[in-house]
Amino acid sequence: MLTAKTSSTDVGQALLYPKSIALVGASDDAKKTGGRPQLFLRRSGFQGKVYPINPRRTEVQGEKAWPSLSSLPEVPEHVFVLSPTDTVVPTVQECAKLGVKLVTILASGFSESGPEGVERENQLRAIAQESGIRILGPSSLGVVNPNNGLMLTANAAFAEPDVPKGKVFVASHSGSMIGALVSRGKARGVGFAGLVSVGSEVDLSVGEICAATLDDPAIEGYVLFLESLRHGDQLQAFAREAAKRGKSVIAYKLGRSSAAAEMAATHTGALAGEDDIADAFLKDLGIARVEMLETLFEIFPLAQKIPAQTKVAQRVAVVTTTGGGAAMVVDQLGVRGITVQPPSAETIAKLQAADIPGNAGRVLDLTLAGTKYEVMMKALDILLNAPEFDMVIAVVGSSARFNPDLAVKPIMDSAGHSKPLVTMLVPDAPQALAQLTQADIPCFRTPESCADAIASVFSRRQLSVPAIVKGHATTATRALSEAQAYDLLDTLQVPHAPAATFDLQTLQPGALPFDFPVVAKVCSEHIPHKTEVGGVVLSIRSQEELAAAFATLRNNLQERAPGVPCDQVLVQPMRKGLTEVLVGYRIDPDAGPIIMLAAGGIWAEVMRDRSIRLAPVSVETAQEMIGEVKMLQTVAGLRGKAKGDLNALAQTISNLSQLALRTDLNVTEAEVNPLMVMPEGEGVLAVDALVMQPL
Amino acid sequence: MLTAKTSSTDVGQALLYPKSIALVGASDDAKKTGGRPQLFLRRSGFQGKVYPINPRRTEVQGEKAWPSLSSLPEVPEHVFVLSPTDTVVPTVQECAKLGVKLVTILASGFSESGPEGVERENQLRAIAQESGIRILGPSSLGVVNPNNGLMLTANAAFAEPDVPKGKVFVASHSGSMIGALVSRGKARGVGFAGLVSVGSEVDLSVGEICAATLDDPAIEGYVLFLESLRHGDQLQAFAREAAKRGKSVIAYKLGRSSAAAEMAATHTGALAGEDDIADAFLKDLGIARVEMLETLFEIFPLAQKIPAQTKVAQRVAVVTTTGGGAAMVVDQLGVRGITVQPPSAETIAKLQAADIPGNAGRVLDLTLAGTKYEVMMKALDILLNAPEFDMVIAVVGSSARFNPDLAVKPIMDSAGHSKPLVTMLVPDAPQALAQLTQADIPCFRTPESCADAIASVFSRRQLSVPAIVKGHATTATRALSEAQAYDLLDTLQVPHAPAATFDLQTLQPGALPFDFPVVAKVCSEHIPHKTEVGGVVLSIRSQEELAAAFATLRNNLQERAPGVPCDQVLVQPMRKGLTEVLVGYRIDPDAGPIIMLAAGGIWAEVMRDRSIRLAPVSVETAQEMIGEVKMLQTVAGLRGKAKGDLNALAQTISNLSQLALRTDLNVTEAEVNPLMVMPEGEGVLAVDALVMQPL
User: Fold this and answer.
1) Distance, in angstroms, between A502 CA and closest chain B CA?
2) Taking CB atoms and an 8 Å cutoff, what residues of chain B touch A370?
3) What is the pTM of this model?
4) How do residues B212-265 score in pLDDT, each as one tens digit?
5) How much is the ipTM here?
6) Cα separation, A590 vs A388, whole angstroms
7) Which of B363, B320, B364, B313 is nearest to B340 (CA)?
8) Residue B150 in contact with residue B18, Cβ under 8 Å?
9) Sign, Cα dihedral of A395, A400, A403, A408
10) Which of A73, A173, B256, B428 keeps 20 to 30 A from B617, CA to CA?
């Protein structure tokens, strides 16, 4: 029995470089799932020890078979359990007893399949916790390391012998996808330094698996194929370390559409998180989330050249030999919010002095006449040295296919420049693409993947939040009353409308510290949704109406919430802003503390017009968020309309987000809704708030 | 000199099957632009006559050269002018004199380059009009017909000898793109029956060029590469005929982003139209607009199987051998608004009875265990016959690459079914793709192009509008006064708020036929934008205030619009709806009569929340439009909110759109803004309108 949890370094070693492997349930039939790993390992010439375990045979696929793990001459470093679901728990138990460091489980039939499965999964988790053994899976198709022939996988795709070696490590929720990624990478000249089917992450999560490989010099970057966002704390810890080491992390995440999000949930037994929270999480972690599958194989050289930033300059120049081809790239960038810039007057003068043909519009079009080595070379030199550009894109037409010396070679010869030089080839030009790829020059086969890669690299932000404090997100919660919530807002310096509280039984409420009209609301921690019980009376214009309102509230409570404790009424002046927004803080179970700004009222629901960040955020980041909520353009000074106090709004968002640091306040959720945005200089004003604390 | 305009049939003949060609300005240097067509034609073995014209040489590229067009032994059917810009007009003049049917112009330097160019272009147009000769270009890189070796092009990409023969005809605004399209088509197993670089469409437009080839049995479908929408009437006429013949039309149009739209405008001298108008135009014409370049080479088999419809059922089933791979397709469809449906209980029972493995979620996942010919065959049979589905998508995992017999062959063997069966291959599987492509089975290399193709095919609508009446769109216009505009709305049965008109000089206006509060507005055909001159007074509550308002209006006019004729004041009751929209009719210079519904006020600008169709529209189509304007969800009965009278809105949209048929009313533009949407059963109410007529 292990005495301590296998260290991350040991996991990395046992995962990708095991000296000995046992295959529990190895089949003599190499075509069967249980027979594949042995076949593949032998075919690829893996040099470590491989022990087939099969109690019913003395030989498996022509090799000596062992009856059990305990009969082996050594403790294997990595055990792959290929046997059926019901044998998994005892096998893992045996592994733990023997001191195996890492066990990978192929079988499914755990928490995704009913109460028995949940029980099995709990047993696995208990074994891992007690013994320190680490578990990969269940539902893992295994691990592949092309660099040492470790084809420890039941994925039939690896029947193909030569898996391309390279620098990219893949961790995938989907086991079948790792085969597809290899073949697509191969077609595009991209190789791999490891591929792991992570399965359902009962123990080792994507983040932990990647973290375990961080010191592997063979790995220069990471591709994550994610069905949903899970174990965010571990993913964050990994991303932090990857950023320190300058290793890019790229993610393809399913779940943009609700149908796919729901599928991922059904498939893994996890809850479907909201995609835009996951999106903000990945970007805040400096992870480039791509939209297209093919971008995964093209983005790395670009991602490695551009560091993640909180505010990235996005000044892009385009030079081309084909106007139509360049226009596609400009268009695709434009729909992703990146506007290609025309050269400055000074740069245009330099181009003219150098006799570069082509009119200086938004794109420098050399045309057919300028499709020459010297012309492209000189044009690239001028654009790469122009201070107004952060990136130059060269879009090459048909010459890339039949005469790469004309316009592709100058790109290769300009690649040493510190500024990123990106290439998109308009024809089908596999040889030029392969050359560029081999030279680590960012190059793209389609205008869409080109724009996708640039947009996703630009959208990465520098990780600026503290590590997620795990714990109270999943615990049961209770609401504060509105009056208590305002006390919290006072602490956080979030402005709210003045409020006076009265005893609910008051027959003749006294004078108010503010003018009519006012609103009266029941105030109780047991009634978080006041309107649902008729707990709000609006537009009260006098003391008499106020007294009547109290009576109405008493009646409504008696009828619609009998027995629910409620002692107080909260009275507030009616306030109306130029517009209203929702500002919400919460500890998301996957992403950790997040802050959200959304358009107010029914708009938020219909348009999903909102911006999300990991909390806490600075005032500057809050201003970025304001820029992302389209509705707020209506109060940003458009066409002479009144301007809202967006500075106060930014300050307020930042202030509320500090809850992520104020663990002493013990808040899991705080939603200010609505927050009235008053005219410029007049601030913002919360007129309702819901705060949740752990029970 | 020709006596009549060359017929469309003759254009088609001279374009793709000329018996004789003259190359004016043929160069002896085959590497030069002017030398390429001759080289390419000879290399490809073109059987027609080819006459190089070069007054300075007796031989060009080893063949007899002719000094001039008039020295030729016959009148060539098609003349390609390769000589410089300043020689173009006299050459075309000579062509016309000789009776040449079609002349293609390579040179640029026309309306896109200053007043001299505009003059040259006018001369070309005049020659064409007088003589009947048809002109392709200027800025045309020429014409290619792979079926007869007609490589009549200066595009260097055609140096490559074997252009794949096939069924697709390409018309492209960009000349350089036709080379790229050929190489990409080749890589994907798609061949061509003709490619035309249409240039700047001084005479022959994309629509006319395609129309001229409609009776060519070699052509089964069309790809349009459009920089902008121009000559919509001719495009519409072509689309109408193509639909009758069952020939699909696919378009890739630039200009989704404003930067690219502006580029296209600069490039061609055309005005940049609004992309969503072009989008509505293409869809209403039954043209499938794709978003991705690669979709162009994959969409045809699918487009041919699904007819354009006004209301398309979009019930899609997915069967797969890879859950992760299928989820990508489901996700990509979902973001495009197509939700994959789970099978019905009856279908699930059939699957179970047939012993098909896999849990019946949204996607039928056969898993690794079910990756077998018989299982996939049976699953396809059951799904294709299930009445709840209109389309079945099979997503095949790694087996497609190394063992296509398992899951690809059953797809090929099921292709005879009347219901569309679509395939997406998750690994890189070029051989299986080629087989499927050759068998005309819709198959896709990426989840994105798969979803793009399905979405764009589903988005085609049946052409239901009359042919565009060309003419008065570009003529100068004048506005009607608001009172006159209401008369027009009455004629069209578009409800508006009651209105009373008074003489502007009235000092004591008499009693009103409606209650206070009212609004008073200056009423003059010379003041289309009333608020800009202080011409509106709101919230008038009494006769005294009304008299004061008249005085204010008189003052404001004197100060801010002195001398502008204005005799009337229009008074209306103040009306407030649940929400307000803009309904606009206009004759777009490119698309013809269109009808637009947009969210009201500042929202329309910020969110571009609008829906457009060609006019006129039925009430049913108007209802579809209402469904596309997101803001209107707020009055569609969401979460117990009040419902607006959307039936009345649909009727009103349809009524206003009838202007397209009422040529007697002579209206070029009619914008009802705002149109108040009242609660359900209470109708809609125009409270302002701007109508433009030709001068």
Assistant:
1) 31
2) none
3) 0.95
4) 999 999 999 999 999 999 999 999 999 999 999 999 999 999 998 887 777 765
5) 0.94
6) 40
7) B363
8) yes
9) positive
10) B256
